[in-house]
Amino acid sequence: MTLFKRPDLFRANSLATVALVTIASALSACTTVTDRPAQAETTLDLTEFERIFATAQTDADAPGASIAISVDGVTVWSDAFGLASVELDVAARPDTRFRIGSTSKPMTVTVLARMVERGEVAWDDTIGQYLPNLPEALKTITLAELASNRSGIRHYRDREFRDGERVWWQHFPSTESSLSLFKDDPLVSTPGDTFHYSTYGWTLLAAVLEAAAGQDFPTLLHKDVFGPLRMTDTQIDHAFLFVPNRTQFYWRAPTGQLTNAPFTENSYKWAGGGIVSTSDDLLRFANGWLDGTIVPPDLREVMWTNQTVRDGTETVYGLGWFVGYDDVISRFSDSGETVPVGLRGLSDAGIHVIEHRGGQIGGSTVLWIFPDFDIVVTGSWNMTGEGRKLYAATLQIACQTIAAQADAPEIRCSGHSE
Asked: Which Pfam families match (predicted)?
């Protein structure tokens, strides 16, 4: 039984006020990744999109959620549902700031890319060039290996974030001080040998960027990402400071009751999972990549290419981004769940995707970029877990958005999964 069916709070401050929206794909004056010809008008059924997203939110029992879509750089839908605060009965709005978890990683790699472009660092630079006092095992890792999760640095241990252990509440006064959580631990593999997803690797990358630039990481984010893209509703998730319009965070207790999520202090992982943002700002961020505003096209293409490990095997990751559908498909199949029709349809049709997902205590976020169609879909909610429901809903909406384009191939977006 869900708590969030009050009709007056079901939708809040929507940009989409009609059931059908007609958009012209040629509206954008930006340079896109592919030179698409001018398109005919496209009709999107936003009433159906609302139904898909609201159903997923209800199934996940997420108190509040937001979603946004852009086509050719133009926002065609931005909406918020449910509650930002259950206790205070505050509606979620498009400017509500959600925890975006690991979707922070593409923002961090944007700082790295801009520093590479300016010649301040290079992909093949080693950590030891900037942080000479670290253990020897870390010094030979390159910046590219950190940004592609090929560093061999461990990810989280079992129970590391349970039972009120210190990283839930301990504040680290600097990025370098938070390296104490993992810097002396053995590597899980030789750098470059394997793909091993590691948020701690991104903490180390942030420390390198700080050392190279002589500025702290939040300043670098604002200088190189938030400021240029006018992302005024995005910032570090400071646990002890007031953050305007930040949602409350929730989880399901072992008793089954919806409760406030445990307090968590994210200073140890700002670079890899410690940012709050809005769906509208995530559209600005993604479109800055698509139109070349934030990273030049030649560098972007390098970063949007699957990296390889030492034996030549291709990974699911580029530099700061997942490339393709393999990882998200495996999230469903490995859990014994049916791969959603929209996800399978996009994959089978060969629709190129660049993406990142994030999940942490009190939040889940997805950011899907479809460069061949200049389409971005993003969604968030303020609930721990149930991320795959968010993946499925937003990919279903993405599938139908792409299928509505005049130059789209035949895509199977609905029906029964095989």
From this structure: Beta-lactamase
